[in-house]
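user: can you give me the structure for this one chain? tokens are fine.
assistant: on it. calling the predictor now.
[tool input]
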Amino acid sequence: MANEVTSSAVSALYANVVAEATFLAQERSIMRPLVRVQDIAGVAGKTVQFPIYPTVAAADLTEGQEIGNTLVTPDAVEIAVAEIGVGTLVTDLARNSATGDLVGALGRLFGEGIAKKMDQKVIAEFANFTNSLGAAGSDLTAELIFKAVATLRAQSVYSPMYGVFHPSQTFALKRALANAGSANVPALSDAGNTALAEGFIGTIAGVQLFESAAIAVDGNGDAVGGIFTRDALGVAMKRDLTIEAQRNAKARGDDLVAHMVMGAGALVPAYGVKIIANATL
């Protein structure tokens, strides 16, 4: 049978598949804590509506006169959920031949796999952002980040902003901040010093920057990153990570399955800016 874990593929392993997979699925997901999450566990149906409230304008008042009522009509964005998962057969021989806990090691792999798949589904919604900057073949720069912030603030968006880019996109930004390869090395900015010493950028223009390999790179070596607020994107969670095991006597092993029921969507596309930039080193 193909796609099995056999004794020939086993090395030192760890313990407790459920704890490992659940912890890693939550900790390795970059996008989950950056967006609105609505838990619909126990609620009938495969869709959820996220309420979207409009902005309102204040008016000048005249002393002694009553304030008129302002009509507030909320909208809603519907997100459908679907299953994501991964599974394998753990043979008895593989488990008994391991120097550690084979199931625990699989828990780590399953948790990482589910986290990446969830991030991929959320990141795919960058394409639906109303605002767009950058161009294919061009590098990610600090100027693009400042432009994205200005674009959002021009729409009165001031909540915390987050930026998620492919590591190969942020490479060009780090290189520029650290003046790598330059004959003249002036005093570096705080962001440049952080990039040079720690390998990550941190914050630029108030935007907390993150790197994710879940961002797809196209055939031309370009990728779409994004800068957004929490209200720009939503995740509907019907069932969080679940691990199930079932004995497979014929195969002399156990079937292990990790799965999740979730969906992602753009809630307020105007609250995000997609940035197209080169993703090759």
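assistant: here you go. The two ends are 39 Å apart (CA to CA). The CA atoms of residues 244 and 257 lie 5 Å apart.
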